[in-house]
Amino acid sequence: MKKARDFFFLATILRSSSFLTLLRPTPQMEDISERYCFKPILRWNPQVEDYFVRAYGPDHFSRISQALTRPSCYSCVRVNTLKSTPDAVIEKLLAILKEKGDVNSTNNVNLSKTDANCNSQSLHNCGKAASEQDGVTNTFKESFHSSSISKCQFPGLDYVLFVRGSGPHKIDYGYADGIPPKEVIVSRKCAEAVLRGAQVFVPGVMACSAHVEKGDVVAVSVAVEQPSADGGWGIGITRGTVMQGLQTDPYYFQRSGLYIGQGKAMMSRSGIFRITQGVAVDICSRVYQLPSFHDVLEGEIFLQNLPSIVTAHALDPQKGERILDMCAAPGGKTTAIAILMKDEGEIVAVDRSHNKVLDIQKLAVEMGLSCITTYKLDALKAVRRRNECDAASNLSCCDDINGMQSSNPVMLQVQKTALEGLTADEALNGSGRKNIRRMRNGPGRNQSIGGRVENSKGFSPNSFDRVLLDAPCSALGLRPRLFAGEETIESLRNHGKYQRRMFDQAVQLVRPGGVIVYSTCTINPGENEALVRYALDTYKFLSLAPQHPRIGGPGLVGHFEFPDGYIEEWLQPGEEELVQRFDPSSSLDTIGFFIAKFIVGSKDP
């Protein structure tokens, strides 16, 4: 009997939380605060890091790397001035944010003292930069004291709104008595979306603690790629892994300082890994608090980075012009250009992806824009071959009409009228014939807006007044970014080669006296300044032109010599002030971005 009582007493001790705490390795208090926080360090390929250090200097590049790991302290909203006004949108947004509880809300988290003035100071400096360059009266700081939403103070951009965010916040993750909180580990891309204001969706969850049930409060951390045995990078976590909160858990030490928020589990652990969609964790406390604009005022506003909006202004589109957006998806710059033109003229927006072209169409319809024509087309094949140009120029109205086999004289006159004034591009791309068929037979079921994508064989040389080439790039200026190791020196140089081929197409398509604007969302000078150098050296009839408004900083002057002896030439003295380089570590607090504007002179030899 005594042995039974002793056994029962021992079992009670072993089951007690205090005894389990003694068995569990307990970090020191200072280690807990260092673990359950957000202090990411951006990992780069060593050769790429050396390249950037030599381009920017070690201190400057360190600041850039740090800035890339966090989102901007504000969201930038472009108002569709053809449908609404900035004042009306501000009133609506304030009401929506108040209803959601997002206005000046910190969600029971504490703002870090070191960054408590991040929002107002960054925006104040942003306005100050504009004042210094353009003589604009600086009212940024005052406007943000009175409201979480304010109009942009840069010249000509008063239809752009800044919505203030906050962060970084310190979050109490509930570590108590040596027992860690229940935890959900998400992928790096999921975490970057969460830092921008998204929820944790099921596909983004990699692993979580045992016994997570619906309604449980969980800490959310991120598994970032690590060096692998084959010399590359990877995530050594199998989806569905059970975390015990011990140092033997996968990525236990690598996740230190990579906690991005706290939320409520919307389903049990088994549910998270059984289904394929839905919200897994509703984030209640965020390291960075940015209002969500998902499905908010569709057609009236568009969430867009400030440099992208400036790019549309740099193009300086005019009413009645024919403009080409070579890599148009998802349509933000396309619609910005259309609104600047008051929807008068023609914008040809192309992308090589069928679904992305549909996205452009959907956005154009949503914003009520009719001047945008979309095609599925690879920008590397944007210029039509000579024999196709000759065939298009020889196309006659009679041939088209006869091909329709119409016996109705009235319809023949309508068809002829429909074809008159069509360009060779429109005729060869099928616009004329398809429009005639629609008039004769009525719209088919596939002609509903956003449901059909036209293919294009390219366009005639010198057929556009202005061309925007927002080129596919390494995207090393996008933020927040928690990993950058995938890019190598070779891949960066390949990006540059690809962009030069696209630029060659753009040069052929714009008419003499026209404009080309080239832009990227990367900090890589090989895709920015080196492209400008290539353009000016290859095409003597091109010249850099001033941009308005000028908000970004100067470009990089000089060159870089690679280990294989290849010399990458950048800008020459005097050219740096004619481009705009947006530095993510500057007081503007934007993404990394680059804009160059070229005037096309006479192409005659």
TrEMBL record:
Residues 234-601 form the SAM-dependent MTase RsmB/NOP-type domain. Keywords: Methyltransferase, RNA-binding, S-adenosyl-L-methionine, Signal, Transferase. The active site is at 521 (nucleophile). Belongs to the class I-like SAM-binding methyltransferase superfamily. RsmB/NOP family. The keyword Transferase applies. S-adenosyl-L-methionine binds at residues 327-333, 351, 378, 470. Residues 1-18 form the signal peptide. This is rRNA (Cytosine-C(5))-methyltransferase NOP2C isoform X3. Gene3D superfamilies: PUA domain, Vaccinia Virus protein VP39. PANTHER family: NOP2 YEAST -RELATED NOL1/NOP2/FMU SUN DOMAIN-CONTAINING, TRNA (CYTOSINE(72)-C(5))-METHYLTRANSFERASE NSUN6. The keyword Metal-binding does not apply.
